[in-house]
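Open question from group meeting: does this chain pack into something compact, or does most of it stay loose? Before anyone orders reagents, we agreed to write out a predicted structure and look at it together. Recording both the input and the output here so the notebook holds the full record.
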Amino acid sequence: RLNSYLLISFILTGFVTPAVMHWVWSKDGFLATTRNDPLFGTGVVDFAGSGVIHATGGMVALIGAYLVGPRHDEKGALRFSPMCRPRDFIGHNVIFSTLGMFILWFGWYGFNAGSSFYIVGESAVVAARVTVNTTIAAATASVTVYVFEYFGSNDIALCLNGVLAGLVSITAPCSVVNAWEAAIIGVVGALVYEAASRALVLLEIDDPLDASAMHTGCGVWGMISVGLLSEPDMMRDVFGMGDDHYGVFHGGSGNLLGAQIVGVLVILLWVLVTCTTMFLCIKLLPGLLGLDPTNDMLRVPLNEEIKGLDVSYHDGDEYPPYLWPLVENLKALRKVQESMAAESSHIGQFSQMGIAEGNEHDIGPGADGRAAISPAI
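Structure tokens returned:
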């Protein structure tokens, strides 16, 4: 519901996220590197926000997705149903999605490199390093997702999410790692995203954009990677840390890694407590006010959801009227493809049982290409 969304946005931007920012980035925050007595002698290093921004936002998305519940398809069936494979909801415009991803990627250079504040002297060197590392992590993560999914769905949307997974992962360590380490961070970030995305499906948590898998999982990994891979010279130049306060893979003492883990746990616990309380209060508000307790303040009514929020909630449509016939034809084509994929699956089962063997008229899986149709179509 739009009203609930606006209230949630107000609470997040006015209370939840500023607290985390103060703890890590303020001069006297209890997790800050600039304190006189920083945590474990190092404080929490998060150059541009893997934990402060992304893990925080991703955890909010996870709680929200769980409490709102799974979506319904156009027939009113839930995405997760007993004895059925999870239903897939296909984005209607992959071109716009791709454009949006590139806009985000371009903006990330301001997000990461801009956190160096200056482009003169040593800050210019840091900004250049950050820019290179940001590019490498995003690219390697996208390629990793593509390779990982090559024998699966081959869905370009997953590769787009792979780019964002690499960007989220590199946001914390971008100023204190070399280019080859940025590539490793991108690869691991992609695998973290893949694992987290699959975990959401197994737990039957419907996150339409995989935001929680990407931002929470990769945000946490980005924070941890600082404690593993940060270079001694770069830690000294960027954060003024001496002694052995750098990545354990370079011989660091482990104090930095310990501080990073504590910082992640504090952030996730803070968001879990505050945002669970916030979502539950909004969800149960009608009952608390003595109104209809079945009126869920987080979710629109089922008939509006099935009709589509563009039409029922925002008084518009995703396509102009002259494209409606084309849209209906595409929907009909999708149903045919789904039917063909299901038929091919049944034929494959019969073939394995030996029922179809020896019959020249039976079609085995893949004989006519139908088994290659992605389950996501």
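Observations to bring back to the group:
Residues 349-377 have pLDDT under 50 and may be disordered.
DSSP finds 13 helices and no strands in the chain.
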